[in-house]
């Protein structure tokens, strides 16, 4: 078999040293992590959007906040909008029952509800942004990891050619061309990560914008003093969360 026909990805991996194989493993790991984040957060986003639309439809068609409270108690708070509603109504009922017993409860019922809503929004923002930093890191660094692999491969190829004394074009082009595989792999890892990051960031921004608008309306309804159910709406996970549409 002609030596030229043996060139390719398999030959490049076979003749790579420990550094080259380590860089390749890093790129593979980056790719797996980025695709996992995109898949998990994408599916979660779609499910969250469906549940949010269902809750908002029920909320705006409910006859009273009591009906909303009953719905949350029955089916739980499974989306950012119902989470926010649950926390706001719980804060209103708690303040009405116990008053300002602690420093965090100081002020009027409206002040306490406002602080609770802000806390939930902040926590939901943090939850939505989990994993995005990793996607941004992969998108920014993967091309440079690939470029480093190419530079390392070209260096060793040229050293080997120099030691053999064969400096013809056919002897140089093959090994150098193989080294460029790493640059291509780096770009192949980075492009999906950047596209996934932009998509998720845009989707989160839309969700949070809708949640902020809903929070304003919710605060108005809760602060109007509309009667709430005597029972404080329980929280499913015990901690506030934040928005999604």
Task: List its traits.
disordered N terminus, 7 helices, mainly alpha, 0% strand, single chain, disordered C terminus, rod-shaped, 78% helix, 245 residues
Summary, kept brief:
It is found in: Cell inner membrane; Membrane. The protein has one domain.
Describe the structure in your own words.
With 245 residues, the protein is an all-alpha fold. It has one domain. It is 78% helix and 0% strand. It has 7 helices and no strands. It is rod-shaped and about 90 Å long.
Put simply, the count of helices is 7
- Please, what is the average pLDDT? 77
What multimeric state do the chains show? single chain
Question: SS-based structural class?
Answer: mainly alpha
Shape: rod-shaped
- Main β sheet profile: none
The counted number of beta strands is 0
Order of helices and strands: HHHHHHH
What is the first-to-last residue Cα distance?
60 Å
Radius of gyration: 28 Å
DSSP helix fraction: over 70%
Tell me the β content. Answer: under 5%
Could you list the spans in which at least 5 consecutive residues all have pLDDT below 50?
1-5, 226-245
Number of domains: 1
Main location: membrane
Protein name: Biopolymer transport protein ExbB
Membrane topology: Multi-pass membrane protein
Domain MotA/TolQ/ExbB proton channel: 101-211
């Amino acid at each position: 078999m002609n030596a030229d026909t043996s060139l390719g990805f398999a030959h490049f991996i076979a003749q790579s040293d420990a550094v080259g194989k380590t860089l390749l493993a890093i790129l593979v790991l980056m790719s797996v992590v980025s695709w996992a984040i995109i898949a998990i957060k994408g599916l979660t986003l779609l499910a969250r959007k469906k549940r949010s639309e269902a809750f908002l439809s029920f909320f705006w068609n409910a006859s009273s906040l009591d009906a909303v409270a009953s719905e949350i108690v029955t089916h739980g708070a499974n989306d950012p909008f119902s989470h926010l509603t649950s926390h706001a109504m719980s804060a209103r009922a708690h303040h009405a029952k116990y008053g300002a017993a602690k420093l965090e409860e100081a002020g009027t019922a409206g002040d306490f509800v406002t602080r609770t809503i802000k806390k939930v929004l902040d926590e939901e923002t943090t939850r939505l942004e989990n994993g995005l930093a990793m996607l941004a890191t992969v998108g920014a660094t993967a091309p440079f990891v690939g470029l480093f692999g190419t530079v390392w491969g070209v260096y060793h190829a040229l050293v080997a050619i120099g030691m053999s004394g064969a400096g013809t074009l056919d002897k140089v082009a093959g090994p150098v061309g193989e080294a460029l595989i790493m640059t291509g792999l780096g770009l192949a890892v980075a492009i999906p990560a950047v596209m996934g990051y932009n998509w998720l960031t845009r989707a989160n921004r839309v969700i949070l914008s809708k949640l902020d608008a809903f929070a304003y309306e919710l605060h108005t309804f809760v602060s109007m003093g509309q009667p709430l159910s005597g029972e404080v709406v329980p929280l499913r996970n015990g901690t506030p969360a934040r928005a999604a549409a």
